[in-house]
Structures are given as structure tokens and as C-alpha cells.
């Protein structure tokens, strides 16, 4: 079962409500495509700042290793480790790029497939949507769990109340 983070695009000026077709689901986990083709993967997802940082880091790392007279095998191993890091952190890099572009995190959902996760998310999202034409308040999008105030005589765990000699 995969976990997806759901992002809502920035509102268009003509749109009154968010368009569900434009929502993006970012799967949490390793990306083989980001590992094998990091630059192309970043270009595909339009992650320009991430791509620039990756190219600067990769070129700088390789230049430092060449200046230090490191063997070509070790340089290849380090480049492989950098590609592995990009594959592992691919979902974090996508989330960073989306939030920089103004996309808003509206929740997380899990599902066996992307379609199942989308169905689960939109089932809950539609039920929470207010009447047509009214913009939902930001606080209503993320449900909060009410916390009951504890009385002073409650004991939690194995520890007695402070100040008593039990």
C-alpha cells in the first residue's frame, strides 16, 4: 500500500473552487525513474530549481574529486550514490518544488494504486465540500481531533500526581 501526499494547485483567477482534475498526488517512496534518469526526471516534472541545484552539486563534487586525484572507480561510485540519493528523496524534491510554485498540501491518503488513493481522497473531499459557490475556510480542510481537558486528579501511566506521596 502506497502513501500519497495531495497537493492543490494555486487558484486561477477565474476559478471559484479548486479543480479536482488539477490536483497532484505525490507517492512517497523510492523512484526508479529519478534514480536512473535524474536530469530527465527533473525536467519532466518541471523542477527547475532542484535541477539547477543538482547540476551544481554534481559538477562541483566531480571537480573536487578530480582535483583530489580520486580514482575513476571511486568517482563512479560516488556518482551512483548521488543518483541513489535522488531516487530516495524524489518525493521530497517534488513536494519542495510544488510548494515553491504555490501549491498547497491538502492531505495524505493511502491506497494500493493511484486510482484507489484518488478515489479515497475525493470521497472524503466531496463530503467536506461546502455549498456550491462558497469558499471553504482553510481550517475545515484539515480535521482536528478535539482534546478534552484533563482534570487534576487524573493519573496517566504509572506516575502519581506531583506533590503526593503514594
Description:
The chain has 166 residues and is α+β, with helices and mostly antiparallel strands. It has one domain. The chain is built from six helices and three strands. It has a three-stranded antiparallel beta sheet with strand order 2-1-3. The longest helix has 20 residues, at 48-67. It is elongated and about 65 Å long. The termini are far apart. Residues 143-150 have low confidence and may be disordered.
User: How many alpha or pi helices?
Assistant: 6
What is the end-to-end distance? 48 Å
Please report which band the strand proportion falls in: under 5%, 5-15%, 15-25%, 25-35%, 35-45% or over 45%.
5-15%
Number of structurally distinct domains:
1
| Largest sheet report | 3 strands, antiparallel
Mean pLDDT: 82
Q: Which regions have little confidence, pLDDT < 50, spanning 5+ residues? A: 143-150
Helix content class: 40-55%
Gist of the model:
With about 170 residues, this protein is α+β, with helices and mostly antiparallel strands. Helices cover about 45% and strands about 10% of the residues. The protein has helices spanning about 30-35, 40-45, 50-65, 70-90, 90-100, 115-130; strands at about 1-10, 25, 105-110.
Provide keyphrases for this structure:
alpha+beta; 11% strand; 6 helices; 166 residues; three-stranded antiparallel beta sheet; single chain; 3 strands
